[in-house]
Amino acid sequence: MKKVFAVTLGILTAIGGFIDVGDFVASSQAGARFGMSLAWVLVLGVLGICVYSEMAGRVTAISNLAVFDLIRERLGPRVALVNLVAAFLVTLITLGAELGGVALALELASGVYYLLWVPVAGFVLWIALWRLKFETLERVFGLAGLTLVVFLVALPHLHPQWSSLWQQASQPVPSGSENWNTYGYFAVSLFASAMTPYEVFFFSSGGVEEKWGPDELPVMRANVFVGFPLGGLLSLGIMATAAALFHPLDAQVNSVGQAALPVAVGLGRVGLIVVILGIFAATFGAALENGLSAGYTVAQYFGWQWGKRVAPRAAARFHFVVLLAIVIGVLVLFTTIDPVQLTEFMLVFNAVILPLTYLPILVVANDREYLGDHVNGWFTNLLATIFLVILVIVSIAAIPLMIVTGMGG
Amino acid sequence: MRWRVVLVVVLVLVAAGWVGLAVATGGGTDPLAFRQAVAKTAQGGLTAVRTAHLAGQAQLDGRMFDTTLSPILDNAVEGVATAQQELAGTPAPGAPELAIRDQLSRLLDDAARTIGTLVAAVDRNDGAAARSAVAALGPLGDRLDDFARGHQP
Amino acid sequence: MFVWFHLLDRQVVDRDGQLVGKVDDVELSDEDPPRVVALLLGPRPLGERMGGWLGGLIANAATRLHSESGPYRARIPYEHVASTGTEIRLRVRRELLPEPALEEWLREHVIGRIPGSSDA
Asked: For residue A261, which residues of chain B lie inside 8 Å, CB to CB?
């Protein structure tokens, strides 16, 4: 019974923890502009994150090593350093975007301008990382993020034309005035929102923090193969509500308030309270994960003591990097860049570094020295190789598409 | 050695991208750039009007909070203002384009005025004024939508 | 034969599993075939091994960062290695090894001064 509870809790946490500001922005923008015709990209991205998270989780459970340990061991110090700089910068931008999402959720709740919330959010974020236990952080915000199921609840109340949603989903081509370039640009963003690299940095480092061993493999797999797809379903719900409300009106989405609007229209004030809480929890949870990931990547590259198991004084360099990352995230927002635009940027740069993150995982997952009998089977390797090709294509296409479309136009 | 070559190639690519971006976004008066700018600003205005309409209607139906409505409407106001500014900064290459620009400009002015009226009505809790502003936003959105559909690049 | 290939860039942990650092370089004996005499840890050996302008940059920064008292690199004699594998486990406790200057400085001047820094 206790085991069932633990597994269920883990799955629920994985569902709620799946969504972040990138999913909000990418899914609602794509839904508004293309209806459900980009839904397949989300499905593909969720499959990709499942395949690679399972590998990363397996490597962690068997060898006790996290993703950036692998990156340095497999790519050597020089290439890994380039990788580290890229991953660290992208994590900083992502942290800034998530903090922006937190501040925007607080603005929707209070009516107070979001920039005034940014330093408050940054400070509370740091306190949470400084004081709270790892399990508490993961559980509280993962479970609170589950409230985003409200998008799925709101969908029937918007009385969508189910047949046209289905028709859009089954015809993966740009509709109306849209062209292939913008379609490609949003496909890249959506794919990156599902496979954001910090998710595996955090997932594998969390495995080390929670001292996974071979016995935890089934639980880890349940989290990945049940939790992540259900998390992806929430993302589809966000896309579908935008497709139901905005797409028929030819209106685009360029703010977090608009992304929440379908829930207010469908469910009224109660729904609105729940969705604002959900956005807050999901973005705050993701900000925590990015703050930690900033520390994880640097500490794992250099071999420093890291993690929340030890007192901060025993991991001074790790905690300093985390603190620095939060300060930089706050400063990025103080440039008054629109957090939604920052999120769009963040997704593009996450797309660029995808292969750098995932290739070393695939290589190590085939190494018997690390995994013994737990190395990849042929089917996993086939899927992972197909995804690696997709990752490379997405990575190469990301910046040209961003420039050609002027960030989606 | 190989390292330097890679570095130089990357720098050249970045520089080329930068210049390309500058050229692509630089002001030109060619008809294509004009049509693109018109389509973009029309879409910006349309999005703002539709959003204000949906949010305002939700408010009238008791499905909104004032604290949530105000940032959404502020965004709409900003969206229209940005569209107006961009349109004003787009020179028309000829007489037919000038007429198109004037037509869109009038629509955007209407949008700015109506959303402004809605914001003011919500601020002073004037239900009747808010109702009439929301009612006006519906057809205004349709007019902008027709315009946007008719003027795709 | 090329034992050090399986040592380089691996995580070094102490007797109790505390993280010490990465094997940034190894010191080899003059014998034929050479034998690993010591593990070298720290940004300076890392930078020197990487070479080029990037390595030079790291080695330089590491040299500047080192405190007056502490050494800027740790040399761990190979006798202290208990086992090798996906991580390198030492026979000794981390406290017996020289502490990295950056960790010490940040603990004394930044992290250690914040309330609650001693609570795990």
From this structure: 51, 54-55, 58, 72
